[in-house]
Amino acid sequence: METHLCIPAMGPEGLRAQVSEHFGSAPYFTLYHTASQETQVVKNMHLHHSHGACQPLRAIAGFKVDAVVCGGMGARALMLLNQGGIKVYQGRAGTVKDLLEAYHKGDLVELTPLNACGRHGCQ
After folding, report:
1. Which CATH topology does 4-110 take?
2. Secondary structure (3-state) at 59
3. How far is 41 from 18, CA to CA, in rounded Å?
4. Strand ranges (DSSP E) for the chain?
């Protein structure tokens, strides 16, 4: 199945970038298309926000995204992404490539309001 993924990253290194601990405060997003295996790195222009004020759809506006794979995300951001038709999966720290491998193996858990973060640093 063709999917457009968004993974929050600490740097612009694409597949080699370390995954950001939390979606809303990630400096970059690595976008990955599963069918073509193409990557694109986008700077997060909405990086600075007070906790609970993340605007996830705004941060990735203009890009085709079907799912986000991240270490953690608050319930409000999760709800907004889900309302926009975007699924969210929780992965562990490592590189973007590590999370993509886990995604392809089916090893990731879909985030729900019950397992969403209540604070930063919740991995």
Report:
1. Nucleotidyltransferase; domain 5 (3.30.420)
2. helix
3. 13
4. 4-9, 28-33, 39-43, 67-70, 87-90, 109-110
| Maximum distance among all Cα pairs of the chain, rounded to whole angstroms | 36
Distance between CA atoms of residues 11 and 26, nearest Å: 9
Which of 36, 106, 27 has the alpha carbon at shortest distance from 64?
36
Beta strands at 39-43 and 28-33: parallel, antiparallel or unpaired: antiparallel
Model confidence, pTM: 0.85
Amino acid 123: pLDDT:
47
Domain residue extents for the chain: 4-110
CB 8 within 8 A of CB 20: yes
Q: How far is CA 75 from the centre of its chain?
A: 14
